[in-house]
Amino acid sequence: xxxxxxxxxxxxxxxxxxxxxxxxxxxxxxxxxxxxxxxxxxxxxxxxxxxxxxxxxxxxxxxxxxxxxxxxxxxxxxxxxxxxxxxxxxxxxxxxxxxxxxxxxxxxxxxxx
Amino acid sequence: xxxxxxxxxxxxxxxxxxxxxxxxxxxxxxxxxxxxxxxxxxxxxxxxxxxxxxxxxxxxxxxxxxxxxxxxxxxxxxxxxxxxxxxxxxxxxxxxxxxxxxxxxxxxxxxx
Lengths: 113, 112
Known about the structure:
The complex is a heterodimer of chains A (113) and B (112). By secondary structure, chain A is mainly beta. Chain A has strands at residues 4-7, 10-13, 19-25, 31-38, 42-49, 56-57, 64-67, 73-78, 87-94, 103-104, 108-112. Chain A is built from no helices and eleven strands. In chain A, the strands form two sheets. In chain A, strands 2, 4, 5, 6, 9, 10 and 11 form a seven-stranded mixed sheet that branches. Chain A has a four-stranded antiparallel sheet with strand order 1-3-8-7, with no helix packed on it. In chain B, the strands form two sheets. In chain B, strands 2, 4, 5, 9, 10 and 11 form a six-stranded mixed sheet that branches. The A-B interface holds A 4, 31, 33, 40-45, 48, 50, 58-59, 90, 92, 94, 96, 98-107 and B 1, 6, 9, 32, 34, 36, 41-46, 49, 51, 89, 93, 97-100, 102-105.
């Protein structure tokens, strides 16, 4: 069981470039989330999904788009990267019932220059 | 929305001593409070959680307490060991769904 797998682990982008971060889970979880982690700011929710084909905005959605075409995958896209999007990105999932903690991936460190 | 505050931001203790990390939350509808441990270069891992109908929960050397009236909850680590060194995050989940709001983290260093 791999749990939650994020690819890539590291990436450097130039301002204005685009990229997609992939999150894959093999636990048949319903809910999936994308967070960004910045020093002194904890984890902030970007977008989330409560099931295949659904997405919703979180606390800091601007500049990002997401898709959940398959239950096991949740993609985070940056259409035109900006230096303010330099961060560590974490994907997480839960079964869907209440009172479960997240299972997190190991993160993607993105630098935009 | 929910606002979670966490203190202290850094904490150093001698090996064998206890460590306490405190969090407060603002939304009285929050009813689930997990704690996560994040080691360097890794994603956060759930270490213990508590529901709002429980005042205290223990798991070996770690415990969590919840005071719903005061809207605060705390993580207690006893007999600390060097491998407890990590960043710890508290979180709260209100009734709006399975969203979690995180504190800003506490960097714990256990000095051998």
